[in-house]
Specification:
By secondary structure, the chain is of the alpha/beta class. Among the domains are: 95 residues, no CATH class; 57 residues, no CATH class; 35 residues. It contains 9 helices and 7 strands. It has a 7-stranded mixed beta sheet with strand order 1-4-3-2-6-5-7, with no helix packed on it. Strand 2 and strand 3 form a beta hairpin. The longest helix is centred in the last third of the chain and has 24 residues. This is ABC transporter substrate-binding protein. Pfam families: MlaD. It comes from Streptomyces fulvorobeus.
């Protein structure tokens, strides 16, 4: 049977068919994540009584191994609907899903326990009877702090003491229990202020940790980068350490090889030093006289190529002019050598 060319077909029918094809292609592109062999896994949903801090992008783990992620957390009536995807993992029709605590800073993840004989229908939502949510410790401390603040501990202590007095004639077991309650009430009453401060401090600590969550994460990431860099430079650090060790070995050998030549030289230097120390006073006197002598030589030769000098007592006194003053200690020698 010969097929009609497109040009001979009804243009209205061809246009409608083309629009349907384009709509299917657009829908496929929009829901590409849900398509087999293309999307990011099989999509499931579960009902919880509370979200417990779970958020989009949190991990989905099966037997402790990451198998997917949470894609949505929304309120559905009096329940919380959690959408998640799982890749390359089997989930049975009796599987249980729980919100678990990942870190002390409050991160959560979705823990799936794959149970059942038949696979879970992705279009059938997992009911609340098969889901669990953790109890938030921060909320517990906050609620306990508020409750302790509203309790009249003194009145509570008097109530327990009244109970103890009422059961004082009861059997030993009952009387012991009542006395224990009375002692407990007195302890709580005496430690009321300390307990309130402890709970307030715990509340402040949890808030501080929550506020510094990003800082802790950055610190851990930076520490991981540092360790990775040290790992990458391990060979270089090893070569540096081995090179330093070899250098120390070579220096030790050099010292040992030259010890015979250096030892006599050092001994002679020690003897010279000892002689100099022994004649220290003579050396000091020589140095002081040398200073005066050098100054005299400098004054004599300081006029260039001429000698600048002064000779005293060469001419007799009677040959000098009358106005020439007599210089004490500078007289000519007497006749006869005396």
């Amino acid at each position: 049977m010969r097929m009609k060319p497109v040009g001979e077909r009804d243009p209205v029918a061809v246009g409608i068919a083309g629009l349907l094809v384009l709509a299917l292609v657009g829908l496929g592109a929009y829901r590409a994540d849900s398509l087999p062999f293309i999307g990011g896994g099989t999509a499931y949903s579960a009902d919880f009584t509370e979200s417990a801090g779970l958020a989009d992008g949190d991990e989905v783990r099966i037997a402790g191994v990451k198998a997917g992620e949470v894609t949505g957390v929304s309120l559905d009536g009096n329940k919380v609907k959690v959408d998640f995807t799982v890749e390359d993992a089997w989930i049975g029709d009796s599987s249980t899903v729980g919100i678990a605590i990942k870190t002390l800073l409050g991160d959560k993840y979705l823990a799936v326990d794959p149970l059942g004989d038949a696979p879970q229908d992705p279009d059938s939502r997992i009911t609340v009877s098969r889901t669990t949510a953790p109890y938030d410790v921060t909320q517990a401390f906050d609620g306990l702090g508020e409750t302790i603040g509203e309790i009249d501990t003194a009145q509570l202590a008097r109530s327990f003491e009244t109970i103890s007095a009422t059961f004082k004639d009861s059997p030993p077991d009952v009387r012991g229990a009542a006395e224990g309650l009375s002692a407990l009430s007195r302890t709580v009453s005496e430690r009321d202020a300390q307990l309130v401060r402890l709970l307030k401090g715990s509340k402040q600590l949890t808030r501080t940790l929550a506020d510094k969550k990003s800082s802790f994460e950055t610190l851990l990431k930076d520490g991981n980068l540092l360790l990775a860099e040290i790992q990458a430079r391990r060979d270089s650090i090893h070569l540096l350490l081995t090179g330093t060790r070899d250098l120390g070995t070579q220096l030790t050998g050099v010292v040992e090889d030259n010890n015979k030549q250096l030892k006599p030289t050092l001994d002679s230097l020690g003897r010279v030093t000892a002689v100099l120390v022994k004649n220290r006073r003579s050396l000091d006197k020589v140095l002081s006289l040398t200073g005066s002598y050098n100054r005299l030589i400098g004054n004599t030769l300081g006029s260039g190529r001429w000698f600048d000098n002064y000779v005293c007592g060469v001419v007799p006194r009677n040959y000098l002019p009358p106005q020439e003053p007599e210089v004490p200690g500078c007289m000519p020698p007497k006749q006869g050598g005396r």
